Hints:
The structure is a single chain. The chain is mainly beta. The chain has a single domain (about 5-115), classed as Acid Proteases (Cathepsin D, subunit A, domain 1, Beta Barrel), CATH 2.40.70.10. The chain is about 10% helix and about 50% strand. It contains two helices and nine strands. The strands form two sheets. Strands 1, 2, 3, 4, 5, 6 and 7 form a seven-stranded mixed sheet that branches. Strands 8-9 form a two-stranded antiparallel ribbon. A hairpin with a 2-residue loop joins strand 5 and strand 6 (about 75-85). The longest helix is centred in the first third of the chain and has 8 residues, at about 35-45. It starts with a strand and ends in an 8-residue tail after the last strand. About 25% of the residues are buried. The mean pLDDT is about 95.
Amino acid sequence: xxTFKARLGVxxxxxxxxxxxxxxxxxxxxxxxxxxxxxREHVGIRPKRYMEFGxxxxxxxxxxxxxxxxxxxxxxxxxxxxxGAEGQYLLGATTLQELGLIADTxxxxxxxxxxxxxxx
Length: 120
């Protein structure tokens, strides 16, 4: 596992312009989490459902989840996004997989996943 920051674009997927942020790439996190105010007020994404999540400290919390279009390292894809608290900019593994990217933690960058990375 490893973490570093990367430029991440997020939009509602309906043709509205993307907002670009610096997000922490965390290969140990499953989903992407962004501030609720960014998603609702700036990007226009509404929650579709609530899901329960476990946190590193052992706590659990039910949080709103929606769908967003993400852009990173020249790729774009739709993926789930968790509505988080202010200051939470986290790019998780599911979004990376949807984008076809992997984290190069040595050089602190996102790179295309090799064909052998994905199995069917």
